Amino acid sequence: MSIQEHYRSRAKELLSSGTVKMVIGYGTGSTPDRRRPVFITSPDETDRLVLDKACRTNLSGYLLREGLLSDQKQVAVFFNLDGVRSLNILAAESQLETAQVLVLGFRIEGEEVTALQGERAADFKSLIAAAKEQRKSQPPHELQEKLEAMTPKERFSFWEAEFSRCIKCYACRQACPMCWCRRCVVDNNQPQWVNTSSHTLGNLEWNLLRAFHLAGRCVECGNCSRACPADIPLHLLNRRMSDEVQGSFDHYPGMDEAQEPVLASFRKDDPETFIL
Amino acid sequence: MAKIGVFVCHCGENIAAKVDCTKLKAAMESHPGVSIATEYKYFCSDPGQESIKKAIVEQGLTGVIVAACSPRMHEATFRKACAAAGLNPYLCEIANIREQCSWVHSDGDEATEKAIEITRSLVEKVKRNNELQPILVPVTKRALVIGGGIAGIQAALDIANAGGEVVLVEREASLGGHMAQLSETFPTLDCSQCIMTPRMVEAAQHPNIRLLTYAEIEKVEGFIGNFHVRVKMKARYVDMQACTGCGDCIQKCPQKKISGEFDCGLANRPAIYTPFAQAVPNKPVIDSRHCTYFKNGKCKVCVKVCQTNAINFDMQDEYLDLEIGAIVVATGFQIQDTSLYGEYGYGRYPDVVTGLQFERLASASGPTGGRIARPSDGKEPETVVFIQCAGSRDPSKGVSYCSKICCMYTAKHAMLYAHKNHHGTSRVFYMDIRAAGKGYDEFTRRAIEEDGAGYIRGRVSKLWQENGKLMVRGVDTLLGKPVEVPADMVVLATAMVPQPDAKEFAKTLGIGCDEYGFFNEAHMKLRPVETATAGIFLAGACQSPKDIPDSVAQASAAASKVLALFSREKLEREPIIAMNNEATCSGCWGCVLACPYNAIEKKDITDRAGNLIRRVASVNPGLCQGCGTCVTFCRSNSIDLAGFTEKQIFAAVMGL
User: Fold this and answer.
1) Cβ–Cβ of A95/B586 closer than 8 Å?
2) Which Pfam families does UniProt cross-reference here (chain A) (predicted)?
3) Across the interface, do B635 and A213 touch by the CB < 8 Å criterion?
C-alpha cells in the first residue's frame, strides 16, 4: 500500500471512529506541482487527500483559526518534521495544546515519501534531536554562502534590491505559522513605529522586523518564501538568525513543548559576546 | 490644548558658557504648545523654583520642561516644586542640556542647536504625558545577613540591637569566619578568639537573630523591602534539637585522618566534627564525603555512642523560604591558591606555610597549642623568613591589587615569633611597607626596632632545600645586592581573593562585581556600602580586601542603612510600571518569562456566562519595577510603560 493510501485509510478510520473532528491535509492544487490545504470532516471525503513530494507547506498555522480548538476536540494534521517542531513551539507559546493534535507524520527525501513513526508531538523527540545535530553539519545554502562572503555594503545593496520588489501584501505573515499575534506590530499605528509604505525604508523595516520576531522560533519550513509573490528569498534571513541562535545558545526551535523562548530566558553560562 | 512652560537654566556658567540660552528660549517660545519660556541663572535655587511655581499658577501650565542638568541631579527637586504648585509631578520633565550637551561640546553654535533639539524633543514628550500617582509598597522589617564572619556578626548585632529582626546565614557549620582562625590581632595583640567568641555567642543567643548555619542562599527574588529568599539548609545528619554537644561521637569516630579546614591542613579531624572547640553552635556535622557509613554503608559508630539518638543518616537538604526587607552581603574572602607560586616551593616543602597557617601555629587553640613549630618535624625554627606580596601586586599571577592586610600581619607574625622564641631570627622580604591606619606604623616600627625583625626590601626569586635548610634567594634592592638566607621556615603572605563562587553569587543576588569577583558598591566614594541594587548592602572583605576594624566599621554602616530603611512603614515607589493592552495580548507569556520580578500574572477573560474565552497577561503594580523588559519582549506591542509610553517616546524621537 502506498503511503498516500495508508494515510487515507488512517484518516477515514480517525474520522469514522470520532477520534478527530477534522483532518487537515493536502489536496490537488492549481498546477501538478502545487498542493492546496484541505479540511476533511467526513470519512467519505478522505479520497481528496494527496501525499507526495509536492506536499511542502507547513499546515500548523491553520490550527490557530479562532475557535477551532476551543471545543477540546482533536484534529489530525499532516506534518513533516518541521511541522512537528512548529507544533511544539505553538504549544510552548501557549497558543494550543499538543494533546488536541494528532500527527500524521511524513518525510520527503528526493522522490520518496515515507511515514514517520508516532502520532503525538512528543513521539518525534529523538528524530528532532537528530535533525538538530544534522543541521550543524549541513552545508550552507548556495545563495547564503554568497551572501556571507559579501561586504556589509554589498549585502545591504543585495537586500535593498530584493526588498524593492516587496509590495507589502503581508503574504509572508499570513503563511507563517509563527505569525499568530492578534495584532501585528506593523498594524499598530499608535504610534506607527513601522513604516507601512512600500518604499525602501518601509520594506526594509518590515522584513527585518519580521526576521527578528522569528529569531529562535523559525523552523525553516519555507512557507514565507513560497508564499511571496515577488520571490524574495525571505527564508535566508530567518536561516541566518537560526544559525545565530544555534551557534550562540545551542537553541534549536521546537525541540519539545516545554522549550523556553531563547530571547526571553537565560542561563548563567550564556555567552556574553555582545558586552564589550 | 497644551500649555507648556519651558525653563532654561544657565547653571551659572556651566550651560550658559556654551549654549546660547537666549536663543534656546526664543526657539522654544515659538514652538507650538509652549505658553511661556524663560531663562534664569539657577532654577534649582529658591527664587528659581518660586518662579516656576508662579508660572504654573498664573499661566495654568499643563506641563513643565526644565532645560538644565541631568535628571539624576534635580528631577526630584523640580517635580516636588511642580507638585507644590498643584501640577502632577509626572507632567514635569528635565531636558539634560548640561551633561549631554554643554559639558561635552566645544562648539557653541552646534551645542545651542543640540540644546534646542533636546528641549524640543522633551516638549513633544511632555505634551503626551499623563498624570500618575505614586505606588505605596510595604516594607518587610526583617534583614538577611549573608556570612557569619566578623562583618556579618557585627551587622546582625547592630540591626538586632536596634530592634530589627535578622536572619543570619552562614554556610559553614559554625559562625566565626576567618577571624576565628587568627591568633592575635594587630595593632594591639589581643587574642582574636577572645574578642570574637563573645560576639558569636551574643549573635547566637540574641532574641532578634535567627541563626542558620550550614546553610546557603539558593535564590533571591523580589526587590527592596520585599525580597523572597530561598535558603538551602544542608543536611547535617545531626538533629540540632536532640544533640547536647557532648562530643562523644567526635571522640569515637574511626575516620580521623581528614585534613582539617579550620587548621588549614595542619591537623586532622574526624568525619563527624565541629570546626573548632569554640564553635557556635557547638554541635557537630557529618562530612558525608568522608564518612565511612556514606562511603561503605557500614560503621554507624556515632549512632551507637550517641545517647540522645541525635544522629540521623536519612536527613536531607531542606529549603526555607523567607520574606526579607533588606540584605547585607558579608561573604568574606579566601586566600589565593598558593600552588601558583612554584618558585616558593609551597606544597613541595612542608615548612613553607601560608600566613593563615602561621596564624594557626601561633594560636593557643591551634594544633601546636600556640608553640611555633615546623610542620615537618615539630622543631622550633631558628630562622623564619617572611615573604610579603606572595601573590598580591603581581599582575602576572592575576592579582594586581594590594591585599592591604599583609604588611600588618607579617609584622605581627615577626613580633609573635620574637615573643615566643627569644633567640630566633626573622627576616621579612617586602616591596613597600604599607602601614596606614591608627597605630599601624608604630606597630611595624616596633616589630623592627624592639622585636628585631630584619626587613629586606626586595623580592624573592627562588627557594630550595639544602642541608636541611630552606635556602631563600632574593635581592636587597637598597644595597643593590643579591641575598641568600638559610631558613627553617618560610611564611608566605598570600593574597586575599574573593570567594571562588563570588561571581556566580553576584548573579544570584543581582548585584555587580569587578573583574576579580569583589562585589561592586554603588559609588566608590559616596555610596561605598550600597550596591547598585536597592536594598542590598555590602560589609567586609567581600567588597575589597579589608582588615578587622574596616570590616566592622562597614558592617555597622550597612546596618545603619538597613535600619534607615526599616524606619519607614511604606516605601513610595515611582508609578513607572508596565500596562498591558488586553485586547491585543495573545497570551504567549513571553513577558512572564522575561519579567525578572515575577510581576506578570495570567488573567482569565470570560464571556457573560463565565466561560473562559482566552487568557491574557496582567501586571501586578506592587511588584512591577518598570524595567521595561516585557515591553521589549512583546512582539505585538501590547505592553507599554507608564511614564515612558511608546507614544511618548515616539513623539520625543520625532521631535528631534
Assistant:
1) yes
2) Fer4_17
3) yes
Assign a CATH topology to domain B4-127: Rossmann fold (3.40.50)
Find chain A residues with C-beta within 8 A of B638's C-beta.
183
Q: In degrees, to the nearest 5, what angle opens at C-alpha B344 toward C-alphas B182 and B382?
A: 65
Q: Over chain B, what is the mean pLDDT? A: 94
Q: Find the residue in B nearest to A90 (Cα).
A: B588
Mean pLDDT of A8-24: 97
Class of residue B203 by CB neighbours under 10 A (exposed 0-12, middle 13-18, buried 19+):
buried
The full length of chain B comes to 656
List the single range of A262-276, B160-174, B218-232, B344-358 with lowest mean pLDDT.
A262-276
Better pLDDT: A194 or B413: B413
Q: What is the pLDDT of residues B30-68, one digit of tens each?
A: 999 999 999 999 999 999 999 999 999 999 999 999 999
Higher pLDDT pick, B498 / B510: B498
**Hey, what's the cell of B292?**
565511612
3-state class (DSSP) for residue B344: helix
Q: Which of B295, B472, B294 is nearest to B383 (CA)?
A: B472
Instruction: Look up residue B96 and give its three cell numbers.
Output: 539634560
Q: Cβ separation of B588 and A94 shorter than 8 Å?
A: yes
Chain B residues near any Cβ of chain A (below 8 Å) = 504, 507, 583-591, 593-594, 615, 633, 635-638, 646-647, 650-651
Of B590, B638, B650, the CB nearest to A264: B590
CA distances from B218 to A266, B233, B333 (A): 17, 10, 19
User: Chain B partners of A182 at a C-beta cutoff of 8 Å?
Assistant: 583-586, 636
Chain A residues inside the 8 Å CB shell of B586: 95, 180-182
Is the domain spanning B574-654 CATH 3.30.70.20? The answer is yes
Contact B593 A93 (CB under 8 A): no
Q: Which amino acid is at B13?
A: E
Substitution target in B504, B586, B589, B629 with the highest count of A β-carbons within 10 Å is B586
Ordered by start, the domain boundaries in chain B are: 4-127, 142-173+201-232+317-332+507-566, 248-305, 334-497, 574-654
Q: How does residue B533 score in pLDDT terms, banded at 50, 70 and 90? A: confident
Question: What pLDDT sits at residue A267?
Answer: 79
Interior/surface letters B374-405, b for 16+ CB within 10 angstroms, e for the rest: bbeeeebbebbbbbbbbbbbbeeeebebbbbb
User: A94–B507: do the CB atoms touch at under 8 Å?
Assistant: no
Instruction: Give the model's pLDDT for residue B149.
Output: 97
- A131-176 per-position pLDDT tens digit: 999 988 887 778 888 999 999 999 999 999 999 999 999 999 999 9
Q: What is the mean pLDDT of residues B594-599?
A: 84
Q: Which CATH superfamily is domain B334-497 in?
A: FAD/NAD(P)-binding domain (3.50.50.60)
Q: Could you name the CATH architecture of B142-173+201-232+317-332+507-566?
A: 3-Layer(bba) Sandwich (3.50)
| Residues A200 and A230 sit within 8 Å (Cβ to Cβ) | no
Mean pLDDT score of chain A, rounded to an integer? Answer: 93
Q: Which residue of A has its CA nearest to B581?
A: A183
